[in-house]
Structure prediction request, 164 residues.
Amino acid sequence: MCYLVSMLNVRPLSLLFLLAAPLAWGDIYKHVDDKGNITFTNSPMKGATRVIVESPSPRSTAKAKNGSKAQAASPSPANFPKVSSGAQKERDTNRRRILEEELAAEKRLLENQKKELSEAETNRSAEEKANPKKFLERISRLREGLVLHEKNISALQAELSRIR
Prediction:
């Protein structure tokens, strides 16, 4: 199954849930199209770059010196998969890198949206001068896009602040 995420259709937090979900071990690829839309997938795509390389790690079955299983701070079900600290550190590093890349991309998109809005407010086409409603609709769409990018930036910054 291929997990695709288009950043125009899915909020960054949804992407985080996707990345945090217990997926099968494998590589994750990132593809950016000509319009700046970002797609993450577990299947190689033409022009995509590999962003996460994971190999399966054996389940850890740490035992205390007395032979019983070590107690975790918060107990997990007996059949819950265990991850080695090295594998978890690698995942956390990849997650941080992806979030930082997404934050940089959102900031670029916000700046582009601001420029486009500024240009749109100062330059009306002949059609928009004849029909002010079209002008207001276009400005409204641009402002909505601006607000969306600002919310995405806030969500990404909040998520980055929660990473260990």
